[in-house]
Description:
By secondary structure, the chain is α/β, with parallel strands linked by helices. Helices cover 40% and strands 22% of the residues. The chain has helices at residues 13-23, 40-52, 66-72, 82-88, 96-105, 126-145, and strands at residues 2-7, 28-32, 58-61, 76-80, 110-115, 148-153, 156-160. Strand 6 and strand 7 form a beta hairpin. Helix 3 runs parallel beside helix 5, helix 4 (82-88) crosses helix 6 (126-145) and helix 5 runs parallel beside helix 6. The longest helix is centred in the last third of the chain and has 20 residues, at 126-145. The protein is globular.
Amino acid sequence: MITLVLGGARSGKSAVAERLAARADRPVTYVATTHVGEDSDLAERVARHRERRPPSWRTEEAGSDLPSLLKRLDGLVLLDALGGWVGAAEDMDVDAAGLCEALRERSGDTLVVSEEVGLGVHPSTEAGRAFRDALGSLNQAVAAVADEVLFVLAGRVLRLEDISDTDGGHL
């Protein structure tokens, strides 16, 4: 089962994914994609995320080869978040097809957290627009292989429907 959990900044998407993983009542591997560096605000946010997670959860830090890491992991995986992976990639060029293949082929359920970037202010820089476009395309690719897509807004969850699965495509 692949579940994509989308949401904007501070929407509660990671907390929702963590609650879903905790409900599974089995071992969880948390895959972190964000590298803090010297950003003190980000370091504080990452620390709060760590404090929320049960100490029994194993943490793996993802590098550029996220698909290979996912294929090696068994059991329930919580991947948080795709934006960190895209942002760390050279020219924001990630292997979306490889990620989707790894998600489909891995043994175990996967909760994938990602930032919804299409609802905010139009980025004022070329790098910002490139990030928005790359992550938006990646979100669509992962949503296409996901069994369930959730959208988190103000800590509340909406299940998103795939219109291609409806009867005859009529609204």
